[in-house]
Design goal:
Elements: E1 5-7, E2 21-23, H1 24-49, H2 54-68, E3 77-82, E4 87-94, E5 97-104, H3 117-126, E6 130-134, E7 138-145, E8 151-159, H4 166-173, H5 178-182, H6 185-195, H7 198-205, H8 208-222, H9 231-242
Helix pairs in contact: 1-2, 1-4, 8-9
Length: 249
């Protein structure tokens, strides 16, 4: 195995799954993140129990950004980051550029995309593509686009105290880690989400490979010996019976 690779981590932190190598940097980032999530569960629960204010929530957020996601408190984080307009809670730096703005709400406040109204304007003015919204417990990542297709798309929505499996929480949050951003894993996730939108999927469903696979499956189900089926019949059925007309324009 390559010196820079290891095997997939299990929930126990060991590597028993042969044939599933991941880069060493990724395994280390996931391990660090899993440890931070476990360690911060109690302090986060205490904050929620006493309905802590935004200032106390920010302290936990800073710890998680550093201890969990791997950003240096001194080199990568700028609190009260000044923009051309107002200041934002955090500017998150990757190398020599501001990668994301972070908006923090108190731990007991429900998050709403409307909370991003001001920071979204600041991000557009500053050319920042990513926005994070958090109350310490829930972490949301949004991608900002400008121009004719201007909009804000939710890419990640993770609850540190959710009922799902801990490894699923780590899998999702990993994309926000410094290492994952540097290796373009977050951008890859964004492109994957975009590819699953209606219009791109409609194009996939009409591709030659999919039409041929559907034709073969229909032949097996109908057991029509000697009838090979017409690919154009399949294409027409997909367009008329399966794919919404709004996605065919």
């Amino acid at each position: 195995m390559d010196a820079d690779a290891t095997q997939v981590l299990t929930r126990t932190g060991e590597f028993p799954l042969a044939g599933n190598p991941v880069p060493r940097w990724e395994a280390d980032a996931r391990r660090r993140l899993a440890t931070a999530v476990e360690r911060l569960t109690r302090p986060l629960s205490d904050l929620l129990e006493r309905d802590a204010n935004e200032g106390d929530t920010r302290m936990l957020v800073t710890d998680f950004l550093s201890d969990g996601l791997g950003y240096s408190k001194y080199d990568d984080l700028t609190t009260e980051y000044r923009t051309k307009g107002e200041s934002v809670d955090y500017g998150l730096r990757i190398g020599d550029r501001i990668f994301a703005f972070i908006e923090v709400k108190r731990c007991g406040q429900n998050l709403d995309a409307r909370n991003l109204r001001q920071v979204r304007t600041n991000a557009a003015d500053e050319g920042v593509e990513w926005l994070m919204l958090t109350n310490g417990r829930v972490w949301q990542a949004y991608h900002l686009t400008v121009g004719e297709a201007a909009g804000t798309e939710l890419i990640l929505d993770v609850d540190l105290l959710g009922e799902g499996e801990p490894e699923a929480t780590v899998d999702a949050l990993f994309h926000l880690s410094k290492e994952a951003v540097e290796h373009e894993r977050l951008e890859t996730l964004r492109r994957w989400r975009a590819a699953l939108a209606g219009a791109p999927l409609a194009e996939v469903l009409q591709s030659e490979a999919v039409v041929e696979a559907v034709r073969a499956q229909v032949r097996r189900r109908t057991d029509h010996i000697g009838h090979i089926g017409d690919a154009e019949d399949v294409s027409r059925a997909l367009r008329e019976e399966v794919i919404p007309k709004s996605l065919l324009d």
